[in-house]
Amino acid sequence: xxxxxxxxxxxxxxxxxxxxxxxxxxxxxxxxxxxxxxxxxxxxxxxxxxxxxxxxxxxxxxxxxxxxxxxxxxxxxxxxxxxxxxxxxxxxxxxxxxxxxxxxxxxxxxxxxxxxxxxxxxxxxxxxxxxxxxxxxxxxxxxxxxxxxxxxxxxxxxxxxxxxxxxxxxxxxxxxxxxxxxxxxxxxxxxxxxxxxxxxxxxxxxxxxxxxxxxxxxxxxxxxxxxxxxxxxxxxxxxxxxxxx
Length: 245
Prior knowledge:
Blueprint: H1 22-32, H2 37-45, H3 47-50, H4 54-65, H5 69-72, H6 93-110, H7 120-131, H8 151-170, H9 177-202, H10 216-243
């Protein structure tokens, strides 16, 4: 009788503790997403196509971000410029600085030539994630106003960026369809790796016990409240004990 059971795939074992180290985490991410060296080469080769479109991409991204107060408010810094999101526009100094950062971010990716798990690129993308939590992330941000963007908005931004890339690349009819598909798939994988690195810095990981970055303030408040509640409970227990005498 023929064996009708589906062949079980070979299982790889990934202890959660190994995902704490960045290089091991990237190794798992690239394996799961099937991000190969060829994907990296595809991204590098897309530089000549993407670079000329970066100004339009930047305008599109920041027009979108300034269309909602919940995303625009991240660029309002107390005592250093605009006081409300409505004061911002594409030519405001704060927005021009952010556009410059995103431009360098995109160029850093397309100029990368090392796609191994220990590549400096992944460390850079991880620092980008940290820099949005309210912590500096990069040395040059140490004396700049705190930048805190919630994970939901970052996920939406990545989704918007992905849509822009898909529409841009698929619309390049001068390229063979196979080439366009390869480019879209490669960029899609990098965007999802960035998404995980954002999640790494925002979401509590129950498997590893890692806490988000940029929450030192409310963690401290949590300890204060915990001590306060414990004090109340101890007082209640003491009163009950006294009443039972």
